[in-house]
Design brief:
By secondary structure, this protein is mostly helical. It contains 14 helices and no strands. The longest helix is centred in the C-terminal third of the chain and has 32 residues.
């Protein structure tokens, strides 16, 4: 169907969700900063605290994507303006510029300057340009490179599949959500015991595993639009006191204070329910983490760049500590270094957003028929 321009339809603006995006990006930075220090032989108690949190915050990103993308598509179908071309162009404009900037710098130019073999660079570029870095990690056909982009590749795989699933299920979003949740859950169970060439568990890098979290996001969108019962629950389960209690309890699991993280089924259930709760709560006016709109938009705008570039700023923070000869202490290395990396990442991501991303994102208006923040 050809897109018919309309500005009468909007999904609204969820300020709390932008704050949640930033929290997730910062959480991934803390996880990778303490893990990087551990890999360099600098053990901190904070590493135990953040050992599993990075994976949870990444999962929440997928739930947020599932919610927002499906909500926009629901509105487009309601308005009669859905177009596959528009959908794919919006995703390309949003994801590709920063992704390929990282590819050019970290997988091509910097390795060339550092003397990496041309063969290895060509292999890395092949996987990066075909959005298959996650499979590259499974096959280990690579010298260590900028692998943080693997999750963006998986997200692209889901975006490629989603419109065709909607056609298959005749635009019944709730059926698509059920299919993705069940398929993703089974994928985790099946692939968790399948070793990869790089000694990873295959489940973490197989695209179908993340159907589970993306499907949960679609499920929340279905509840919000009343195509699935549950909207009345909002009056009870998102009271501020309830949010505080839920966060105190379940962040304890995320930050390794309680629970058995070796039990996959338990982990999937808890992270799915808690991640879904946070995303759903972030759509509420009384979300306990909500900030002023301008600040929320700023934090949301820089979150993608923070995720893409945070490995660089972690390296800069470690280099700064080394140059200054800072002696080890739990406060300095366990918490001070990740905070410094986060602040540097915010500054770097702000420059990227305002000087590089935002001018390109204006092109999305040509392919947008339903208003949203972007």
């Amino acid at each position: 169907m050809n897109a018919k321009k309309s500005t009468d339809f909007s999904i609204g603006y969820f300020g709390g969700m932008d704050v949640l995006r930033f929290i997730c990006a910062a959480g991934v930075i803390f996880h990778h900063a303490t893990l990087t220090l551990k890999d360099k032989g600098v053990a901190t108690h904070a590493e135990e605290f953040h050992r599993y949190s990075g994976s949870f915050f990444l999962d929440v990103f997928f739930i947020i994507s599932g919610f927002l993308i499906s909500l926009i598509l629901m509105k487009e179908h309601e308005a009669g303006t859905f177009s596959m071309k528009n959908f794919f162009m919006r995703r390309i404009i949003r994801i590709w510029p920063l992704y390929f900037l990282a590819v050019i710098l970290k997988i091509w130019l910097i390795p060339v300057a550092n003397g990496m073999s041309i063969t290895a660079i060509k292999t890395n570029l092949l996987y990066a340009c075909t959005f298959s870095i996650n499979f590259q990690l499974l096959f280990q056909e690579v010298v260590k490179t900028y692998t943080i982009l693997w999750s963006i590749c998986i997200e692209e795989h889901i975006y490629l599949l989603l419109p065709f699933l909607l056609l298959l299920f005749k635009q019944k979003f709730k059926m698509v959500s059920y299919f993705l949740i069940v398929t993703g859950f089974i994928s985790w169970i099946y692939f968790i015991g399948v070793p990869s060439a790089g000694n990873y568990s295959s489940a973490y890098f197989v695209s179908s595993s993340y159907f589970y979290y993306f499907g949960l996001g679609i499920l929340i969108a279905c509840i919000r639009t009343r195509s699935i019962p549950g909207i009345k629950l909002e009056q009870t389960i998102f009271k501020p006191l309830v949010q505080i209690i839920v966060c105190l309890i379940f962040f304890g699991f995320v930050f390794n204070r309680w629970g058995n993280h070796n039990s996959l089924v338990t982990t999937l259930i808890i992270t799915g329910l808690f991640g879904g709760y946070l995303v759903w709560a972030s759509t509420q006016e009384n979300f306990i983490l909500k900030l002023k709109p301008n600040l929320s938009k700023y934090l949301g705008n820089i979150s993608y760049a923070m995720y893409v570039t945070h490995i660089i700023t972690i390296g800069l923070a470690i280099a700064f500590f080394k140059k200054k000869g800072i002696h080890f202490s739990e406060g300095a290395f366990g918490w001070g270094l990740p905070i410094l990396a986060t602040v540097l990442c915010m500054a770097f991501s702000s420059l990227l957003y305002y000087c590089f991303e935002r001018p390109i994102l204006k092109l999305k208006k040509r392919f947008t028929t339903v208003k949203n923040k972007e």
